[in-house]
Amino acid sequence: MNDPLTGHAPAGAPAWLPHGVSLLREPTLNKGMAFTEAERDALGLRGLLPPSVLSQEQQEARVLENFRRKASDLEKYIDLNALHDRNEALFFRTLVDHPDEMLPIIYTPTVGLACQQFGHIFQRPRGLFIGSNDRGRIAKVLANWPYHDVRIIVVTDGERILGLGDLGANGMGIPVGKLALYTAAAGIHPTHCLPVMLDVGTNNEALRSDPLYVGLQQPRLTGAPYDELVEEFIAATQEVFPGVLVQFEDFANHSAFRLLAKYSDRICTFNDDIQGTAAVALAGIISALRVTGGTLAAQRLLFCGAGEAATGIADLVVDAMAATGVPGPTARGCCWLTDTQGLVVKGRANLAEHKRPYAHEHAPTPDFLGAVRALEPTVIIGVAATCGTFTREVVAEMGRLNKRPIVFALSNPTSKSECTAEQAYQWSDGRALFASGSPFDPVTHGVRTFVPRQGNNAYIFPGVGLGAIASRARRITTSMFLAAAKTLAAQVGEADLAQGSLYPPLENIREVSARIAAAVADVAFRSDLAGIVRPADLLAYVRGQMYDPHYDTYVSG
C-alpha cells in the first residue's frame, strides 16, 4: 500500500505490505508492540504504538495475565476471540504453548455456551455466512473470501450443535473453533482455512424471537430445496477452491449420513461427528485393551445413543475387527445400540436406516441399566447427550461384570456428560478405564490419583486434515481413520496408562497430529489417492508443512 500523502511505498518496506493504521488493523500481519524500531520507521507506525518494543513472548505473558483474570469461561472465550481478531500469530502462539488451558475455551466445552450466546457476544465476522437466500450465487459468495488458497472448509448448518440442538446461524462458532484447532494442533496455515455457516433457517423459536439473532429469521429449509442448496454449495467449493477438503460438522442425523454417502466418493470430504468421533473412541478402546489384555474381537460394546456418533464408532470398530479376520456379521453382533425407546432390536418397527445393521435379535429392554444386565458388555459408550445416564447402578454393574470396566462418557459439553470422572472411579472402586468428551480434573480415589483425558476429536481431525492436505488426497477413506486411530493409540505411553490416561497429553498434540497426518498420507499414497509424488521421508515432509505461529520480519535493520 502506498503512502496516502506521497503516493509512494514506505522506504525500505515491501511494496505489497500495508502500513500505518491499516497494518495494525490487519490481524494476519499485525505484531502489535513487537514491531522493531526500523519497522516502525519504514511502515509508518512511529507514534501509533507505545515506544517500548515487546517480544512475542512478552506479549504472550500479558495475554495470559489478562486471560487468567477473567471470571468465567465465556469471558475467556470472548477475550481470546478479540485477540484472534487483532493479532493472529499471537493468538495461535498462545494456543500452541498452552493447549491444556486454551483448547477447552476455544472449543469444547465452552464453545457450546458461546454458540448459545453467539448473537449477544458477536464482535466481528469470521468465516462466510451462506444463506438460503444466496441460491444461484454461492460461487460468487465464496469468491468474496479474501484468501484464495483455501485448502479446508468446515461447514455446518447449525441443526445439531454438540448436544445442544438447533442453534441455527449461532452454530458458526463451531467451524471457527474447529479451524482454530486445525491451525493450533496441526499447523494448517490460518489463511488455508475457511469456516462456513450454511444458514437454512432455524426451528428454534427462542432464537427467531431474539432481536440479536444473527441468522435468517425463518423456519428451516427442508427436502429438495435444502438438497439443492447443499449441492450448489459443494459444486461451488470445487469451482472456487479446486480439490478443497470439505468437513461436515454438526448436521442432524437425517442429513449427516445422507450427505456423507452422497459426497464421499465425489470430493475430498468427511464428517467429523461420524468418522472423527469413531477414530478417537477406537483409539481409546485400543489403549484400554493394553490394560485389560483383551482383544478387540472379544469385546461387547453397548452404546447409550444411536445417532451419528454411535453408529460411526460401531462402523469403525467393525472395520477394525474385520481387518483382523473377524467376519462382518460377527463383528456387528458385538455392537449394540440404545435410544430413547431402549435397546435397538430387530423386531422394532420403523427403525432408521443407520440403526438397522445393529438391530439384533433380542427381547426389548426399555432402559440402559436393563440392557447392561442383559447383554453384559465389556465397554459402554455414552454419545446420546443425556446427562447422568451412567448412574451408580450402571457403573457398579459394569464393575461386577468386568475386572476393569471400560466406561466412555463422550457427550459434550460437560452438562451433557453421562457421568463425571469422579463418579466413574468412585462407583467402580477405582477400576474403571474412563474417558470423556469434556475435560475433568484429576481424581484421587484411595491411594491413587487418576488423570482422565478427553476422548476429544481434536486428537484426530487436525491430523487427518493435515495428512489429506499434505498429500493432496482426492478422497478421505475408512482406512485413513483406522490408521489415525491406531497411530493415536500408539502415542499413549505406559506412564499414561498407569495414571488412567487413555490418550496422550494435549501438550503433545502437534506431534500426535504430525504422526497421524503421516499415517493418513501413507494410506493416500498406497491407495493411489495422492496428488503429489511421495516424499522420501513422509513424517519430515509433513512436519515441514506445519505453520509455526511466530512474527515475520518485514524490515531488516
Description:
This protein has 557 residues and is α/β, with parallel strands linked by helices. It folds into three domains: 97-267, Rossmann fold; 275-458, NAD(P)-binding Rossmann-like Domain (Rossmann fold, 3-Layer(aba) Sandwich), CATH 3.40.50.720; 461-475 and 483-544, no CATH class. The protein is built from 24 helices and 13 strands. It has helices at 21-24, 37-42, 56-69, 73-86, 88-97, 99-106, 110-116, 118-121, 138-143, 173-186, 205-208, 223-240, 253-263, 272-292, 308-323, 328-332, 368-375, 392-401, 421-427, 461-471, 478-490, 494-498, 509-526, 538-544; strands at 128-131, 152-156, 193-199, 245-248, 269-271, 301-304, 335-339, 342-343, 379-382, 406-409, 433-436, 443-445, 448-450. The strands form three sheets. A six-stranded mixed sheet has the order 8-7-6-9-10-11, with helices on both faces. α4 crosses α7 (110-116), α5 (88-97) packs across α10 (173-186) and α14 (272-292) crosses α21. The chain is globular. The chain starts with 20 loop residues before the first helix and ends in a 13-residue tail after the last helix. The model is unreliable at 1-10 (pLDDT under 50).
Quick summary of this structure?
The chain is of the alpha/beta class and 557 residues long. 43% of the residues lie in helices and 9% in strands.
Radius of gyration: 24 Å
CATH class of the largest domain, named: Alpha Beta
- Mean pLDDT score, rounded? 95
Silhouette: globular
CATH superfamily of the largest domain: NAD(P)-binding Rossmann-like Domain
**Amino-to-carboxy terminus distance:** 21 Å
